Amino acid sequence: MSEMNRRRLLQAAAAASAFAGVIARAEVANADDERAIEALLARMTLEEKAGQLTLLPDNARAGALAGANPAQQNQTNDTLTEIRAGRIGGLFNGVGAAGGRALQRAAVEDSRLKIPLIFGADIIHGYQTIFPIPLGEASSFEPELAERTARAAAMEASAAGLHWTFAPMVDVARDQRWGRVAEGAGEDPYLGAHFAAARVRGFHGRDIRAADSLLACPKHFAAYGAVAGGMEYSTADIPEQTLRDVHLPPFKAAFDAGALTTMSSFNDIAGVPATANHHLLTDILRDEWGFRGFVVSDYTADEELIAHGYAADGPDAARLSLLAGMDMSMTSGFYMRFLPDLVRNGAVPQHILDESVRRILRIKTRIGLFDNPYRGCDPARERRVMGLRPTLALAREAARKSVVLLKNEGDLLPLQRSARVALIGPFVAGDENQEGPWAFLGTQHDAASIANGIAGALGDASRLTVVKGCNVEQPIAGGVDAAVAAARGADVVIMVVGEGANMSGEAQSRVEIVAPQAQQDLVEAVAATGKPMVVLLRHGRALALHGAVKNARAIMATWFLGSETGVALADILFGAYAPSGRLTVSFPQESGQEPFFYNHRSGGRPQTTEDAEYKSRYREVTNEPLFAFGHGLTYTKFEYGPVQLSGDAMAWDGELTATATVRNTGSRAGEEVVQFYIHDRVASITQPVRKLKGYNKITLAPGETKTVSFTLKRADLEFTGPEMVRNAEPGTFDVWISPSAVTGEAKSFELRR
Ligand code: GLC
Question: Does residue 58 line the site of ligand 1, with CB under 6 A?
Fold first, then answer.
């Protein structure tokens, strides 16, 4: 079996199990380890036990990561003393092999019980070499690519002394106003499950005890992507069926892939904050799924139980979160400060505390920290493994595959290398805006600059004119005039517009998901010259496009592409690589349509024609996306044949195969992501109008035809019913094999008992 087919089987298994059942691999520690842990536990004081449940910012080594979180007032600055006293179990967002060695020495040589520290950090899309943001990378529809970039990130990050990453972020996000859309895999749980599992496999590598392994922490558990209004840190008022069928599958897939930690989220779920949600953290995660790892809170999320109005004070917050199933407190220090007395006064049973300590000691044992506490603390290796050529080549491949060609009127692209090009916009040079959010440790590479990339592709920089024209959110005096002059002297204009890195990611919710006005004005002025214009969008979410941006002849979604942005975009613009990405988030026509996603329920009066009144509609726009989930073009065209079904019915324990031909009708080879959707017409919980249940990225030579098949079993038709039980129900199902979530002709079949 080929490696690709093995991975596809893994993915299919992940997808199937992602929705239900016990975690595939639940064992963590063997009998010898358990005995050693029990012996250690028996020697620990309450303070030392609470210390193992305490994760603090590594302020001494924070450096570039200091900006990742809000400053904390109540932080101990005497970390070494606290470590030697056994009051800290781990540090985060500090990096550097030498510094890690010194901190670890304080724990394993100076403390009473010599329990090693665990070092974690936010390695979301690369360490020093930055890959495309996860939302961009998901557009590749190649989870195996994500596995490779996660592996490369782990190689670099583990060399800097890290054992653990607070990634992958697997939140399913359906409201593009939310800034953290950038960190996930988009609006679909099935695709999200594949990428979640792939990224866990990549971070872990072949053995999580190895020095180059990075322990994954799928986050934010759970339903953070459902925050009302796309408002950061807000509430998630969703029914449990939506929690189970939309937001949990990527987590289940991550745990099935071997993830042994998870991070509780800031939001509440129907009024019960996730960080103290016993139903989530114990009933589902442990009792139903059999999760044997540990739960870490998000940054001060236990302290925030007070602001939620769920805990009365610090001790109450510590008690409620621990009793709910949380194990490790990040940043607040509440466990270190309050748990010993809470146990002494009986508010927290000692066995609950002990079990959380066991979970953390098991994981430290499982990743080899007791055998090799100085794992990853080798400055020589740290110097050796950063920014290697194969890693940069992978960053370039990932960037190329993340780009989605949204529009290409008159086949304006690919451009001729003999053209005179005007490159205009606030992102034309190389800076942090190429790398996007959560790239604090990235180093600037010349290849990141779009100007450098295009100059290299043209071979003669004299035919390239580069003008910023405006800043990200503010005009530049004379900028528009300079841009218009550059456009007039060129054969083609490339505009790079959209969001700055600081407009995306955590705490960056936006009411209008548009390019800032200064940029829109710049594009309007340049478009008025009448020159052919290519728009490269820079963004961490779907955008609402207007005016000259929307009307450009060619538009590409280029996200934040990371260290090799410039050369990767040049590869696509000039045809060295034909774009193959497909959207994993729907682009609305207007911001006001958000939350806006393809896999929505029908409602009782779905708008079917534009002129119908008394239907689900807005006065200003139709309900169609500007660009749909799954949409993406390339430098050739494809034609789909009709869906053929292996029968008109599926027996209760049978299966059904759907097949279609896809032909390359153009003159260039191209890659197509063939997508497979289903719709359950009648069900006891109304089902989405379409659900992705398969995809296959194929390459076709000019004129070549391939047949693509997808097989369904009853498990693929299941959903969470009124009694919170997953079941399929007999009835009629529609299926599509199509190039997006809004195209294709449906065929139907019956599921029969
Ligand atoms: C942040 C984020 C979380 C991150 C953590 C540590 O608030 O919500 O994703 O891992 O704090 O930086």
Answer: no
**For ligand 1, what atom is nearest to the CA of residue 68?**
12
Average of pLDDT values for 588-614?
A: 91
Say how many Å lie between the CA of residue 299 and the centre of ligand 1. 6
What distance in Å separates the CA atoms of residue 430 and residue 419, rounded to the nearest whole number?
22
Summarised one tens digit per residue, pLDDT across range 43-64 is 999 999 999 999 999 988 877 7
Alpha helices in 160-281 (DSSP H): 189-204, 240-242, 249-256, 278
Contacts of 711-716 spanning 24+ positions with Cβ under 8 A: 711/655, 711/656, 711/657, 711/658, 712/650, 712/655, 712/656, 712/657, 712/658, 712/678, 713/16, 713/654, 713/655, 714/650, 714/652, 714/653, 714/654, 714/751, 715/16, 715/19, 715/20, 716/16, 716/678
Catalytic residue, chosen from 122, 298, 302, 521, is 298
Q: Is 232 in the pocket of ligand 1 (CB under 6 A)?
A: no
Q: How far is the CA of 506 from the centre of ligand 1 (A)?
A: 8
Return the exposure string of 697-712: e unless at least 16 CB atoms fall within 10 Å of the residue's CB, then b. Answer: eeebeeeeebebebeb
The percent of residues in the chain predicted with pLDDT above 90, rounded, is 90
Instruction: Kindly give, in sequence order, each residue whose CB lies less than 8 Å from that of residue 508, ignoring residues fewer than 6 positions away.
Output: 179, 180, 232, 437, 502, 540
The verdict on whether 298 is a catalytic residue reads: yes
pTM, full prediction: 0.97
Using alpha carbons, select from 362, 424, 425 the residue that is nearest to residue 52: 362
Which atom belonging to ligand 1 lies closest to the Cα atom of 219?
9
Section 620-641 average pLDDT: 97
Is the pLDDT at 13 greater than 90? The verdict is: no
Q: How confident is the model at residue 262 (pLDDT cuts 50, 70, 90)?
A: very high
**Mean pLDDT across 652-662:** 98
Ligand 1 atom 11: residue of nearest CA: 299
Token code pair at residue 692: 């992705």
Q: How does DSSP classify residue 280?
A: I
H/E stretch holding 174 = none
- The single residue listed with the structure tokens 């993830």 is 259
Phi, psi of 329 (to 5 degrees): -95, 120
CA-nearest of 94, 86, 88 to 110 is 86
Based on its alpha-carbon atoms, the radius of gyration of the chain, rounded to whole angstroms, reads: 26
Tokens, residue 195: 């990428």
In three-state secondary structure terms, 626 is coil
Taking the CA of residue 122 as reference, the ligand 1 atom at the shortest distance is 10
- pLDDT for the residue numbered 76: 58
> Probe ligand 1: pick from 181, 298, 302, max atoms within 8 Å of CB?
298
